[in-house]
Amino acid sequence: MEKTHLAFGKKSMFVLAAFFLCFLFLLYWNTRLPGTRIIVLNDQHLDVYVADTINDMYVGLGGREDLGGKDGMLFIFDFSERHGIVMRDMLFPIDIIWLSDGKVVDIAPAVPLEPGVDEYDLTFYRPRAEATMVLELSAGWAMEHGLQIGDFLTLP
């Protein structure tokens, strides 16, 4: 029986190298930390992660044991809607604050964890009004700082 040898030409090596580079890029893209930004809410300067990609919004703060030295995460949406938030893979409770054009329109304080709950059974937290941004902070922040509906967030 005759053995067949597999020969790689320059074209095959180029395709293999391109595939490998794409793999490395996607690996980096999925493991990078979101950008950060300083915001001002209720006269408090906060250093927050900014979730402005679909992947960052899906993952959110899930899987983290803490805020990693930041004060929270700001989700910026392209359109106004009653954007829902779930506690997928969350390891610590949070306050959820919905904003429309910088104005606080709703607050869900100290949202509890849902360990072991199936994806489709997670509680969906929605605001009473449409919003363009959602801010997640450590549980208790809103009460501790007297945050109320109608307060404003500024992005310096």
From TrEMBL:
Organism: Candidatus Magasanikbacteria bacterium GW2011_GWE2_42_7
Alphabetic keyword roster: Membrane, Transmembrane, Transmembrane helix
Transmembrane segments: 12-29
InterPro entries xrefs: DUF192, Saro_0823-like_sf
Name recorded for this polypeptide: DUF192 domain-containing protein
Keyword Cell cycle: no
